[in-house]
Amino acid sequence: MIDLAIYDMDRTVTRRATWTPFLLHCAVRRAPWRLLFVPVVVCTMLAYVLKLIDRGRLKEINHRLLLGGETRPAVLEPLVESFADRTLAGNIRPGARAAIARDKAEGRRVVMATASYRFYARAIAEALGFDDCIGTNSVLGLDARVHAKIDGENCYGPAKLRMVERWLEAEGVTRAHVRFYSDHASDAPVFEWADEAVAVNPHDRLLRLAAERGWAVEDWG
Asked: For labelling alongside 159, which of 41, 116, 150, 152 has CA 20 to 30 A away?
């Protein structure tokens, strides 16, 4: 049996979201002409707010617009590395680094579970000392090219808990004690499943939920 510490990434470990900044980072460095699609990206975000499309479809559309329909690994890898470096330099909460160090010192297996695409979140996670990364997967073609289509589920809301449970099964891990950190109420299913829930810099809805459930609240700066 293993003690686990599971972390959300965007606005929990990081100060700001990473998906759209990652796409813009790629567009600027690989194909600046794709920035012409930014107004369309804004329209897709509005469509999501109006519930005309779901979060998964939003990701797929904006991936195609700003990064392309498919990307060779040799092209993607330096973009991922440079974005990870940029994120580590200016978008990590100080409290996240302290919590990761504490959990590792306690002998916990430290895992990132994020709705962001795993192909770039994993680079950030590894650099921060995480042992594993669970995230939204992209379809890979026979030539290993990354396609602008989600493979399986978008790792968000109830799907995040399902993906964590599938990861535990695949790894052959039996949980002893699970500590879970997130900033957002969409992670309520994982909060409820965990043995110890920690709301990090929570927004109003999660702050109310934490008060009702007796969950810890932490400010990571």
From this structure: 41
| Domain ranges for the chain | 2-218
CATH number of 2-218: 3.40.50.1000
pLDDT digits over 69-118, tens only?
999 999 999 999 999 999 999 999 999 999 999 999 999 999 999 999 99
- Report the predicted TM-score, pTM, of the whole model to 2 decimal places: 0.95
Q: What is the DSSP string of the chain?
A: -EEEEEE--TTTTBSS--HHHHHHHHHHHH-GGGGGGHHHHHHHHHHHHTTSS-HHHHHHHHHHHHT-SEE-HHHHHHHHHHHHHHHHHHSB-HHHHHHHHHHHHTTPEEEEEEEEEHHHHHHHHHHHT-SEEEEEEEEE-TT-PEEEEEES--SSTHHHHHHHHHHHHHHTPPEEEEEEEES-GGGHHHHHHSSEEEEES--HHHHHHHHHHT-EEE---
Residue type, 216: A
